[in-house]
Design a protein that fits this description.
heterodimer, A: 13 helices, B: six-stranded mixed sheet, five-stranded antiparallel sheet, 11 helices, elongated
């Protein structure tokens, strides 16, 4: 068998293994999903009216703020659920079965690829769930064209892939699952200091660069522009550049760590 | 794959070295394991046994050494080596989150067996290792012995010709240990080469054709169990007395026996055979010596082990050493 079909076959086997894990033990993914869902409900139903007025909404109606908030929370959903990948990779690496895989004549990268694809699928499922909740509480994306919809989906997938690779690298770098979960914390914290909840230009001047020069803000601005049909400006390229850079970085980092001798 | 002849070496290592930081774990060891035999690497904890297995099974790279496994150079073609070997590590290499059966099917998929054949192989091995009843339960719920059996069953899915077993019975209860020994014997009767590490001398004695004693990163001795036993002084019969008077008169009568005044005991060199024992007993009777306790000590691998590994010689330690292969004859 030549090497590409072999790689695909082994990666597929590993993916099935990871999805089996996820299906048997869904508690981690579900608990990670709680953060974005709780924040969504909190900001819409508790802070919604004030926030709506704060961002210049027409009246005392929170629908403006829902429209503003949902794209940010979709991105945040990605940030929080990929932490599951960091934890499960770290857990997996401490298992003897990984040593077994390393001594078998299988495609070497398949273990990691299985984790990455498995995590991307789990995050996309989470996005569907959070998206459904958003629609249920009044989010509408009726001004977007079909092309914008497609682009929005592509951006979500790309951002998911990028953060998953970073999370997998974090998981490989961590000595144990607890450390992996701590090390991956920035993936939850970054959206809190991005333009997810309030526009960056309403933040204090000294803080604005922190919000602007990080991957979440351009990704959120782009998604918002696409879903609301309000245009994305230069944020589109910025977001794609961030995604590509993070994917390459995470991939290289993961590969280097997986290929070095286990202790 | 070419069938390896019984004369060829399944595993060959020359000048194998490995250091971690400034700690030399393996300090230039040579190994030669003929195909179809059981080779045991024996040593105390920290001697470098696991490191040797990790290197020979392609898990970590050696710092130096000419290493060949299954006819393939380890450094040049690790993937070919991997195709020839199976490894069961010290810690169970099973996926605890999925069931025993799923673990087996995972192996079948990774060995690229056709679906039907994979299912059949998995079912056969589960049956052979007495895991059918537990097949649908998650592997994390298995007992130590069951996990180890599943571990070996998984290793056998690819029908490897060379199997590395790193301390396969450590932590198992006596019954599971004997089951494991039986499994290893069956493997060997199928012509598989087994590279076994153990810290149990009894285990090496039971199973191995050849034994290498590893101590502080070097091979301290190598040979068959019998050859190794010849390295250390022979066995003896030990007579113990309660009455100092009886002890002293016996010591005078038995001049070739080594005496120990403190414990009131005498050691008479003996190979422990029935004939020699009878002649000793007859002779004691005729000399009118009646010992309160008589024990026969045959040299075993423990003696070899203690003689070869580590500077401390527990045989002189005052604490009562566990009495291996000592049978009391009262």
């Amino acid at each position: 068998m030549s090497s590409l079909p072999l790689a695909v076959r082994d990666a597929h086997t590993m993916l099935r293994r990871n999805l089996l894990h996820a299906r048997r033990y869904p508690s981690m993914t579900l608990s990670l999903l709680l953060t974005p869902i709780m924040l969504l409900l909190l900001f819409v139903y508790i802070f919604g009216d004030v926030m709506s007025a704060g961002i210049g909404g027409a009246g005392a109606d929170r629908s403006d703020y829902i429209a503003y908030l949902v794209p940010g929370l979709l991105m945040m959903t990605i940030g929080s659920t990929v932490i599951g990948a960091a934890v499960s990779v770290s857990m997996d690496m401490s298992e003897g079965v990984i040593a077994r895989f390393r001594t078998m004549a299988i495609h070497r990268g398949s273990v990691i690829i299985g984790h990455v694809v498995g995590s991307v699928l789990q995050v996309l499922a989470s996005l569907v769930l959070v998206g459904a909740i958003a629609v249920a509480i009044g989010f509408r994306s009726t001004d977007a064209t079909a092309l914008e919809w497609l682009a929005a989906f592509g951006l979500l997938a790309l951002f998911t892939l990028a953060l998953t690779w970073i999370a997998v690298g974090t998981g490989l770098a961590s000595p144990n699952p607890e450390a992996a979960s701590n090390m991956a914390m920035p993936l939850i914290l970054l959206p809190l200091i991005s333009s997810a909840f309030i526009p960056a230009d309403t933040m204090p001047g000294w803080f604005r660069p922190i919000a602007e020069y990080q991957p979440f803000t351009p990704a959120i601005e782009t998604l918002r522009g696409l879903l609301l049909g309000t245009g994305i400006g230069h944020n589109g390229w910025l977001a794609v550049a961030w995604c590509v850079a993070l994917t390459v970085l995470g991939h290289r980092w993961s590969q280097a760590q997986f290929n070095r001798d286990p202790k | 794959m070419n069938p390896t002849t019984s004369h060829s070496l399944a595993i060959a290592a020359k000048g194998l070295r490995k250091t971690y930081g400034d700690k030399t774990v393996l300090d230039g060891i040579d190994l030669a394991v003929p195909a179809g035999t059981v080779f045991s690497l024996l040593g105390p904890n920290g001697a470098g046994k696991t490191t040797a297995v990790k290197i020979l099974s392609t898990l970590v790279t050696a710092d130096a050494g000419d290493l060949t496994v299954g006819g393939h150079d380890l450094a040049a073609d690790p993937q070919a080596v991997r195709a020839a070997i199976g490894v069961t590590g010290q810690f169970s290499a099973v996926d605890g989150l999925i069931t025993g059966e799923e673990n087996m099917l995972l192996m079948a998929d990774l060995h690229h067996l056709p679906r039907q054949e994979g299912r059949r192989t998995a079912a056969e091995l589960l049956e052979r290792f007495d895991l059918v009843a537990a097949a649908k339960k998650p592997a994390s719920s298995y007992s130590g012995g069951m996990k180890r059996r599943l571990d070996i069953a998984m290793t056998l899915v690819g029908s490897p010709r060379i199997i590395f077993l790193d301390e396969p019975t450590t932590g198992l209860d006596p019954r599971s240990r004997h089951t494991m020994w039986q499994i290893i014997r069956e493997l060997v009767s199928d012509g598989v080469t087994v590279f076994l590490t153990t810290q149990y001398l009894e285990e090496a004695d039971e199973l191995a054709d050849r034994i290498a004693v590893l101590s502080e990163g070097r091979i301290a001795a190598e040979g068959s169990a019998d050859e190794l036993k010849r390295i250390v002084p022979g066995g003896h019969v030990r007579l113990r007395f309660l009455d100092p008077l009886a002890y002293r008169s016996a010591a005078v009568a038995l001049r070739e026996a080594a005496g120990d005044d403190e414990t009131l005991s005498l050691q008479i060199p003996s190979d422990g055979s029935q004939r020699e024992l009878r002649s000793i007993l007859d002779w004691l009777d005729s000399a009118g010596i009646e010992a309160d306790e008589l024990t026969v000590h045959t040299p075993d691998l423990d003696d070899v082990f203690f003689a070869l590994t580590g500077p401390a010689t527990p045989t002189t330690a005052p604490a009562p050493a566990p009495a291996q292969s000592e049978e009391n004859v009262r």
